[in-house]
Design a protein that fits this description.
The longest helix is centred in the first third of the chain and has 26 residues. The protein has six helices and six strands; from the N terminus they run H-H-H-H-E-E-H-E-E-H-E-E. The strands form two sheets. It has a three-stranded antiparallel sheet with strand order 2-1-5. A three-stranded mixed sheet has the order 3-4-6, with helices on one face.
Length: 187
């Protein structure tokens, strides 16, 4: 069960592995093609392997610095992509809900929607006046009150925390309430 839950909450690295494998296969296939063409005594298809090796050894002579810098930047970005993809844990926008009988995985948008509904009812405002964002460890509730009607942040905070207590998401979420200074007219 733990393995299934980990798979649902963490992204797969299969796409990066496929991209790396395709790049290696293309590079090796091209090297094999050029070597076979050279072995048969025909002219190189794109670049003669011996000439390419000599040019790599002779770098940076003969190559404009701007082109060399651009090529280096591209190689650094590709390497950084693969390195970070392999090292960083990654996380899907999902949380686990505790249940004794089943594994429950819920998107952060669903949690945000439920918390927005509870905050809207506690603040007695319309749906457009509440916006909730859920991240890995935090919930931010933005409320725009109706003009002339005072609103207590503690009331909204208590309602949102009660809803979170009923859900019991894993990992737990810290709540922050932001009340806008300007209210909405006629809501």
């Amino acid at each position: 069960m733990e393995r299934i839950l980990a798979r649902e909450t963490h992204p797969s690295r299969a796409m990066a592995a496929i991209i790396a494998a395709v790049l290696v296969i293309v590079l090796c296939g091209y090297a094999l093609l050029e070597t076979a063409v050279r072995a048969t005594g025909q002219p190189a298809w794109l670049v003669d392997p011996e000439t390419a090796a000599e040019q790599v050894v002779a770098l940076p002579s003969g190559v404009p610095p701007l082109l060399l810098g651009a090529l280096g930047a591209v190689l650094v970005m590709v390497g950084l992509f693969f390195f970070l993809n392999g090292v960083l844990p990654g996380r899907r926008a999902r949380h686990l809900l505790k249940d004794r009988r089943a594994a429950v995985v819920v998107d952060d948008e669903v949690i945000a929607s439920a918390l927005a509904r509870r905050a809207r009812l506690a603040a007695n405002v319309t749906q457009e006046q509440v916006m909730v964002t859920v991240s890995k460890n935090h919930v931010v509730v933005n409320v725009r009150p109706t003009s002339g009607i005072p609103l207590q942040a503690e009331t909204v905070l208590a309602a949102v925390q009660e809803e979170l207590g009923e859900m019991a998401p894993v990992p737990t979420l810290d709540v922050r309430i932001n009340l806008a200074t300007a209210g909405v007219i006629g809501a």
